[in-house]
Design a protein that fits this description.
Shape: elongated
Oligomer: single chain
Number of helices: 21
Largest sheet: 6 strands, parallel
Bound molecules: 5'-O-[(L-methionyl)-sulphamoyl]adenosine
CATH architecture of one domain: Orthogonal Bundle
Radius of gyration: 26 Å
Helix content: 40-55%
CATH topology of one domain: Isoleucyl-tRNA Synthetase, Domain 1
CATH superfamily of one domain: Isoleucyl-tRNA Synthetase, Domain 1
Number of strands: 15
Strand order of the largest sheet: 3-2-1-12-13-7
Length: 532
């Protein structure tokens, strides 16, 4: 049954341009969003930029422009990159937009009015790079250096507005314990969060002073600016808090990486629990899932500009030019750090994945089948003459049915590489079916042509269903295949963030004999290393 589906990425800092890490999270969210549209879900996919960080002011000053000019420039770089890479977000939120700022003021005022935000004094270890205070025990553990970037922590005292996070530990533990309303995945990350909550939660400062005009003021107190993280988290709600979009809440998945899990798994749900207590806010329930992936490293090491292994926009564009957009998506989605270990972005691994799955399996199989259809049946899909089983003694339709089930289960639990493997499994089954039945040998005998017809029908039908499952990963090439196999109705339904009907489309036997099948260039030409 189609339902609604709301998925988000973190909103990215605009002190610099996007890199592979940002592209990764947005790509996996895009694959999942496309899968839900394919199923027919009313899907809302949100990404955007987090602009009120102090480091934006610093970078702007270094570049002799105003913070807003700097933010505009980099927000545009993010938006252009995501558009160029074919992301299908439904909105791109910038925290400097009025529609966001007014909502932040509104919610923070509500938190002040209900007493969950109060004025107090704070002294602690501040991590300037992360814009967050590090609790004493963690500061000590990391030798008073940033656990993230290793730079010394700074001792800071501030008069601040505080959020009563301490009041929400028990309810969070309870919710996480059942995992039914609100959950964190993978489970190892959830266990870390639970352990930290059990250590006890302190109230947290949610305002800063002395940050000039950059940021959103605490309602009623112009000396204080709302802490950038509180401002940023609210984007998930501010964007859809309109009459026609409220139906999307709660978020079904907030995709984040491990670096920012705490904010999403603890502070954000605590804020929402507080807000939802207020009359009129009952709809502000907790997000269903926070999914925290790990990091890309590059060529075996942490990415760094000085090491020269940083995957920046130029490198990303180079991969796209050389291998195509789908190849980058496929590599990121199937080889990426969705679990609790980091993944290595290496050129060798990229080429291997491309050649094995895309060139030698999917692309090659489609070429073989369309070439044989051209040669033996004049480019028209032949009529199967026997039951699918009898041609080879395997139950082809059932293999596909099982693969669709495996794919769907994997997608629902965000196991993207497993889902892709299920789809590729169909293609591999077609390859071995061709090996067993040898249609190119059968075709030499006129009286065996009816058998060849059955084999090619089964192959085409299997590839059609595989292509549907692969579309979220490989939208460009799959559409090219649909153009060549008269399946444009899928392209049309899915264009402009439209929805499909996977339940119906994946049924065996929907390809019409007589349909024109065009042969053409390989979808994924085999890669010759000399080209890099
Ligand atoms: N602005 C905050 C997020 C606010 S969300 C309410 C922020 N921005 S960020 O620009 O630093 O982006 C962090 C996110 O980028 C990570 O959580 C992750 O999604 C992505 N990645 C950044 N580097 C990455 C890797 N090396 N590997 C994978 N993803 C990474 O934090």
């Amino acid at each position: 049954m189609p339902s609604k589906f709301y998925i988000t990425t973190p909103i990215y800092y605009v002190n610099d341009r996007p890199h592979i890490g940002h592209v990764y999270t947005t790509t996996v969210a895009d694959v999942v969003a496309r899968y839900h549209r394919l199923k027919g879900d009313d899907t809302f996919f949100l990404t955007g930029t987090d602009e009120h960080a102090a480091k934006v002011v610093d970078s702007a000053a270094k570049n002799d422009v105003t913070p807003l000019q700097w933010a505009d420039r980099n927000a545009k770089a993010f938006e252009d990159t995501f558009n160029r890479l074919g992301m299908t977000h439904n909105d791109f939120i910038r925290t400097t937009q009025d529609r966001h700022k007014s909502k932040v003021e509104h919610y923070v005022k509500q938190l002040l009015d209900c007493g969950d935000v109060y004025l107090g004094e704070y002294e602690g270890w501040y991590d300037a790079g992360q814009e967050e205070y590090v609790p004493e025990n963690r500061a000590k553990e990391s030798d008073y250096k940033s656990p993230i970037n290793g730079k010394p922590l700074v001792r800071k005292t501030e008069k601040n507005y505080f959020f009563k996070l301490s009041a929400y530990g028990d309810s969070l533990l309870q919710l996480l314990g059942s995992g039914e309303v609100f959950d964190v995945k993978p489970v190892a990350r959830k266990n870390e969060v639970v352990a930290r909550i059990r250590d006890g939660l302190n109230d947290i400062p949610i305002s800063r002073t002395g940050s000039g005009d950059w940021g959103i003021k605490v309602p009623g107190d112009d000396n204080h600016t709302i802490y950038v993280w509180i401002d940023a988290l609210i984007n998930y709600l501010s964007t859809i808090d309109t009459d026609d979009r409220r139906k999307y809440w709660p978020a079904d998945v907030h995709f984040v990486a491990k670096d920012i899990l705490w904010f999403h798994a603890v502070i954000w749900p605590a804020m929402l629990t507080s807000l939802a207590k207020l009359p009129g806010n009952e709809w502000m329930r907790l997000p269903r899932l926070i999914y925290s992936h790990s990091f890309w490293i590059s060529e075996g090491k942490k990415m760094s500009k000085t090491l020269g292994n940083f995957i920046d926009l130029e490198k990303i564009d180079h991969y796209v030019e050389t291998f195509g957009l789908d190849a980058l998506r496929y590599f990121l989605a199937t080889q990426g750090p969705m679990g609790t270990t980091d993944s290595d972005f290496s050129e060798a691994k990229f080429i291997e994945t491309y050649n094995t799955d895309l060139a030698n399996t999917f692309g090659n199989c489609f070429s073989r089948v369309s070439n044989m259809t051209a040669r033996y049946f004049d480019g028209k899909l032949p009529t199967p003459t026997e039951e699918p089983e009898s041609a080879v003694g395997i139950e082809h339709d059932r293999i596909v049915e099982q693969a669709v089930r495996d794919y769907t289960n994997a997608m629902e639990s965000l196991e993207l590489s497993k889902a892709a493997a299920a789809a590729m499994g169909i293609v591999r089954a077609v390859d071995s079916y061709i090996e067993t039945t040898q249609p190119f040998q059968l075709a030499k005998q006129q009286d065996k042509l009816p058998q060849v017809a059955t084999v090619l029908y089964n192959c085409t039908e299997s590839l059609r269903i595989a292509s549907l499952l692969l579309w979220p990963f490989l939208p460009e090439k799959v559409q090219e295949m649909w153009d060549r196999t008269n399946c444009n109705h899928y392209t049309e339904a899915l264009a402009d963030r439209g929805t499909g009907d996977l339940d119906l489309w994946q049924q065996w036997g929907r390809s019409q004999p007589g349909t024109h099948i065009q042969k053409g260039d390989p979808l994924f030409p085999r890669f010759q290393p000399a080209k890099v």
